[in-house]
Amino acid sequence: MKAAVYRRFGGPEVVRLEEQPKPAPRRGELLVKVQAATVSAADYRARTKHVPKGLKLLSSITLGFITPRIPVLGMDIAGVVESVGPDVARFKPGDEVIAMLGGTFGGHAEYVTVPQDGAITTKPPNLTFEEAASLVFGGITAQAFLGRTGMGPGTSVLVNGASGAVGTAAVQLANTAGAHVTAVCSGTNADLVRSLGAETVVDYTKEDFTQETAAYDVIVDCVGNVPFRQLQPLIKPGGALLSVIADLIGVLAAGLRSRRTGTHITAGNVPFIAADLAHIAQLAESGQLRPVIDRSFDLTDIAQAHRHVSTGRKRGNVVVRVAVASTRRPSVE
């Protein structure tokens, strides 16, 4: 099979296509023929080892110290089950699925194995594979964080970094739950986040949202560029801070800060579970969650996809078409 492989850490040029052995599903696993995936911020951090302060040593245990330990990136997929291993009952060959692979990566290849008890669910039938793949990384991450709050009708939510993969999903999920959403992004993305449900937009190139007098029940920080001491005064008593991106101090201090301030803080990695992904898929099928795709690239242009993500300016998701002919929406007779 063809796979996008990187053998050293560095710029987009280190990623190139290679022939790899086609994997075989083991007990409890599915073999999925990948139709589409995304190049995410996590792929960028893995490729470059540009990780939040203090996390380089810990991340190297997973990623590798000198050379990459996992040569194929890609944390999410949309595809078709080709075969199943022993004891697989939830899925069968031919099923269309989406899955979050997480830190095991492997999505930038023609085939990948996925445990049936992992973060995998049926693909929304109304979406193309490209559209479905664009839901996974941002959608399951935003749901995993927001699910730890009591967000509901009337909740005030601020999303810092509202135009990225996680941010666009968080804006939509909060809006769907009946929350009042304030989005922080550049002015060029204001129309986008408003169309997703943001009531108020703060252009960070012109305004500093930390200087505003407003306070919020929930702050979703998808950027990690504001210290806790500046965020804490913006959170209502008993509110929540969801630090999607956090440095080592932010992760280690979350419990102490929660106890000291009464703010419910979630920082760093959260578990990815099938129930969250199924919820995302259901919202997409009902039209309450829409895919946000910046650009799409063929797998043969994987280095260009990485280059675009490296700019830090992508809107929503950058999709990789792994099986080009199979990603088109079928025509209606």
Task: State the main characteristics.
7-stranded mixed beta sheet; single chain; 15 strands; Quinone Oxidoreductase, Chain A, domain 1; 6-stranded parallel beta sheet; alpha/beta; disordered C terminus; 333 residues; 10 helices; Rossmann fold; 2 domains; globular
Q: Biggest β-sheet, characterized?
A: 7 strands, mixed
Strand content: 25-35%
Uncertain segments: 325-333
Categorize the overall geometry.
Answer: globular
**CATH superfamily membership of the largest domain, which one?**
Medium-chain alcohol dehydrogenases, catalytic domain
Radius of gyration: 19 Å
CATH-scheme architecture of the largest domain: Alpha-Beta Complex
User: In CATH's first tier, which class of the largest domain applies?
Assistant: Alpha Beta
Q: Estimate the helix proportion, in percent.
A: 25-40%
End-to-end C-alpha gap: 34 Å
Number of DSSP helices? Answer: 10
Order of helices and strands: EEEHHEEEEHEHEHEEHEHHEHEHE
Number of strands: 15
Give average pLDDT, whole number: 95
Which class of secondary structure composition applies to the elements? alpha/beta
What is the name of the CATH topology of the largest domain? Quinone Oxidoreductase, Chain A, domain 1
Q: What count of structural domains?
A: 2
